[in-house]
Amino acid sequence: MKIWNKYTSIVRENILFSSKKNTDLKYWRDDMFANTIIYIIPLSIIALIPSVIWAFESQHYIMVFVDILSVLLALFTGVKKSIKIKKRKLLFIATVYTLSTFLIYFVGLNSTLYLLAACFLATFIYTFKNQYTPALFNVYISVFYICLYYLDLTPPHNINFDSKELFAVFSNLIFLSFLVCSLVPKLFNGLDESFKNNIQHTQKIEKQNEVLKEITRIQSHVVRTPLSRLMAITNLLKENDNTEEEKVFLIENIIVSSNELDEIIKEIVTKSESIRSTEN
C-alpha cells in the first residue's frame, strides 16, 4: 500500500504540477487524465508479457517493438518531470492511436475496440478545436486499412472475413466514434455549468461568512464601547450630589454615545441586508 501511495503521489505531482487546483472543469479533466495514467501503467505492464509472447510466436516482431514502445511511452508520460500537461495528453493520445492501428493490422477486426476506446479517452481528456477530431482519426485509419485489405497488403488472420463484414465493422466504429464526439462535449458543457454554479455558490457563502464575521466583531467590540459609556453615565446620574454643570455634561455624553450606538446599529443593519440580498 505504501508503494502504491508513493507511486500515485509521484505521477499526480508530475502531471498536475502546472494545473491550478480548483473545482473547474479543466482541473477535473486534468485530474482524470492523471488517474488514467496511474492505472494504465501497471495494467499495460501486465498486458505486455502475453502480448510480446504472442507477437514472437506469430513472428510479428514489429508488434513486439510497438508494444514495448507503448508501455515505455506510458511510463514516460507518468514519471517524466517538467512536461506540460497538454504535451503529455497529446503524447498519450498518439500512443494509444498508434498501438490501436498496429493491433488492427496484425490482430484483425476485433481490435477496432481499441480505436473506439482511443476515441473515447481522447475526447474525455483533451479539448480539440474540432470536437470530431478523434472520430476523424478513426475514419482515416479505417479507410487506410480498407485500402490495404483490397491491395492484399494485410497479413492473414485466424478469423476469415469478407468485404461486407469489413465495411460493417468499420461503419459501426465510425458511427460510434462520431456519437462519442457528439455526446461527450454536451456532457462536459453540463458539467462546466454545474462547476461554475458551485464556484459562484461557494464564493457567495464565503462572502456571507466574511460579513457575518464583521458583524460579530462589531457586536463584540464596537457596540460595547458606547454601551459601556452609557451604562457608566446612567450610574453617575443616579447620584444626587451632581451639580447642574455635571448633569449637562453627562447628558451631552449620553447624546453622543446614543448617536454612536445608532450609527453602529445602522451599519449592522446594512451589512445584514447585504447578506439577504446575496441570498436572493
Automatic annotation (TrEMBL):
<keyword id="KW-0812">Transmembrane</keyword>
<feature type="transmembrane region" description="Helical">
    <location>
        <begin position="90"/>
        <end position="107"/>
    </location>
</feature>
<feature type="transmembrane region" description="Helical">
    <location>
        <begin position="166"/>
        <end position="188"/>
    </location>
</feature>
<keyword id="KW-1133">Transmembrane helix</keyword>
<keyword id="KW-0472">Membrane</keyword>
<feature type="transmembrane region" description="Helical">
    <location>
        <begin position="113"/>
        <end position="128"/>
    </location>
</feature>
<dbReference type="InterPro" id="IPR048437">
    <property type="entry name" value="MASE11"/>
</dbReference>
<dbReference type="InterPro" id="IPR003661">
    <property type="entry name" value="HisK_dim/P_dom"/>
</dbReference>
<feature type="transmembrane region" description="Helical">
    <location>
        <begin position="61"/>
        <end position="78"/>
    </location>
</feature>
<feature type="transmembrane region" description="Helical">
    <location>
        <begin position="36"/>
        <end position="55"/>
    </location>
</feature>
<feature type="transmembrane region" description="Helical">
    <location>
        <begin position="135"/>
        <end position="151"/>
    </location>
</feature>
<protein>
    <recommendedName>
        <fullName>histidine kinase</fullName>
        <ecNumber>2.7.13.3</ecNumber>
    </recommendedName>
</protein>
<feature type="domain" description="MASE11">
    <location>
        <begin position="27"/>
        <end position="191"/>
    </location>
</feature>
<dbReference type="Pfam" id="PF20969">
    <property type="entry name" value="MASE11"/>
</dbReference>
<dbReference type="InterPro" id="IPR036097">
    <property type="entry name" value="HisK_dim/P_sf"/>
</dbReference>
